[in-house]
Amino acid sequence: MSDLSLLALIGVLSISCQWLAWRIKLPAILPLLVCGLLIGPTLGWLNPDEVFDQLLFPLVSLAVAVILFEGSLTLKFDEIRGHGRMVTNLVSVGMLVTWVTIGVATHFLMGWEWELSALFGALVVVTGPTVIQPMIRSIRPINKLANILRWEGIIIDPLGALLAVLVYEFIIASQDVAFLHAMQAFAKTIGIGFFFGWAAAKLLGLALGRGWFPHYLQNVATLTIVLGVFALSNAIQHESGLLTVTVMGMAMANTKNLNLDEILEFKETLSVLLISALFIILAARLDFVQFDALGVPSIILLAFILFIVRPLAVWLSAIGTELRFKDKLLLSWIAPRGIVAAAVSALFALKMEQSGWEGADSIVPLVFVVIMTTVVLQSLTAKPLARLLGLIEPPARGFLIFGANQMARAVAKSLKEHDIAVRLADTNWENIRMARMDNLPVYFGNPASEHASNNIDLTGIGRLLVMSPYKQLNPLVSVYYQDWFGSHKVHGLNSGESDFRASHQLSESYKTTLNLFGESITYSKLASLHFQGAKMKSTPITENFSFEDYQQQYGARTVPMFALDEQKKVHIFTTERDLKPMPGWLIIAMISPEKDGEPQNSSN
């Protein structure tokens, strides 16, 4: 097979693995690694060292630099303090405990030198959002624990990468030199990495904030500058580039009034492409002999990581918190390793192999064993454990509402008043700001983006209401969440498009969702009614006031939206469902004012 054909094969397999992971609701890292092992050591189709030759090391280096920069862009220091003591402890005390205990255990169990053991410990402290989020969606732990796991993964991703880079820099600086010279080289690397990273972040932030680049060049310019700073830093001080781009991303993430949403979305897309191809290539370099060579000590080490290290980190981090024993037990079992561990370990191993470091070729197989074991084992067992402990969230009956406009906010407030979980998502910052003032949970950005899949909190939420005026985004969001929630749990307002061409431009799966509140109810109509003074009202149905009486009394002035039955289950009025609320139910509707006064049978 020619090199060109192999490159095309890697691209096709990368997308196929991502699609498969999306369909079976598993972290993409698993099918990617399995695919790499299949076409590499199993079938012998791909030998990356022959195909890429001298380009392998530079390509992996640049790819990891982009991955670390993209990951560090998500770290905002105020968010660490804003997500509770347990999260703060896990990403500080817990991370250090994990690093030290794994490093010590690796030294004694595997017989590695202290430097390699410390590096391995630093590489496997990271969980990461791309592996933890699919697991949380599958397990559905109670809200408190879901938030702890989610934010631990998001925050520890760049912090763990920074720790691994620092450990690696120290190892390289101390190779074959006296301790004093090693500390001087290490200090120089740290100084250059932090200075160049901070300076590059400030200059790029200034350029983006003042519009020095046209809009269509911002993403490409950012990528080019990141790679340029990485290369320049390495040229000035050997191996300082990874630290530089990590610090650069963190500094930009914490720069006030700097909008990084589009850059993040571009970097996420690029990272998906790089990670997919990178994992297949790296897995294809492995040899099953390497796994056999790890032997029984690796199994003991793996058990130590699962049953000793993680529980120890969780229990120490939980000191002073209100977590119960069973809460800590579940948290102790969920810590799958992910992208940063695999990508960075492969790069460091490559560099150390080239430097002639004995035992460096064992790092990647051991890291991959930890990744595959933690993801597979915990994916299969965490949900039964959560169910046994009584920590499964009740059926998700809340609503994600796409649109945070005035009308959507009124609907969300009326649902929230009846203890129905809601979350508003919008790409308009002013709408989000007003929703926050109304004390409504929000997500700022496109809810169908990769960033949303890793960061949006959907605890208790299992249905989507599309109530935005964005005709281009509405179909995308609807189709995206049909796969997430199920097609019967996605509802949108009729677009009002009546001409033949417009109706046939929409996918059939999207058109089936245009059933919210009735065929004649469009976004424009609801917005107009709200502007004219229509209010959300909750009206009880009783033995003496039936739904027929309700319809007769309010007539055309009412747009029934929801009905709450006696079990507080929410039923939606749609074009496909002829709801007949019974006595004991509650009708939530938008009701237009009457000149002679409001009906006496309604109550706020």
How would you summarize this macromolecular structure in one to three sentences?
With 604 residues, the chain is an alpha/beta fold. Helix content is 62%, strand content 7%.
Q: Key features?
A:
604 residues; alpha/beta; Na+/H+ antiporter like fold; single chain; 25 helices; 9 strands; five-stranded parallel beta sheet; Rossmann fold; elongated; four-stranded antiparallel beta sheet; disordered C terminus; 2 domains
What does this protein look like?
The chain has helices at residues 3-24, 29-42, 48-52, 56-72, 77-81, 84-110, 114-123, 129-139, 143-173, 179-209, 218-236, 241-253, 261-284, 288-317, 325-333, 339-354, 363-389, 406-416, 429-437, 450-455, 473-485, 500-505, 508-511, 523-531, 547-554, and strands spanning 398-402, 422-426, 442-444, 461-466, 490-492, 535-540, 558-564, 570-572, 586-591. It has 25 helices and 9 strands. The chain folds into 2 domains: 3-389, Na+/H+ antiporter like fold (Up-down Bundle), CATH 1.20.1530; 398-497 and 506-591, NAD(P)-binding Rossmann-like Domain (Rossmann fold, 3-Layer(aba) Sandwich), CATH 3.40.50.720. The strands form 2 sheets. Strands 3-2-1-4-5 form a 5-stranded parallel sheet, with helices on both faces. The protein has a 4-stranded antiparallel sheet with strand order 6-9-7-8, sandwiched between helices. With 604 residues, it is an alpha/beta fold. Strand 4, helix 21 and strand 5 form a beta-alpha-beta unit. The chain starts with a helix and ends in a 13-residue tail after the last strand. Helix content is 62%, strand content 7%.
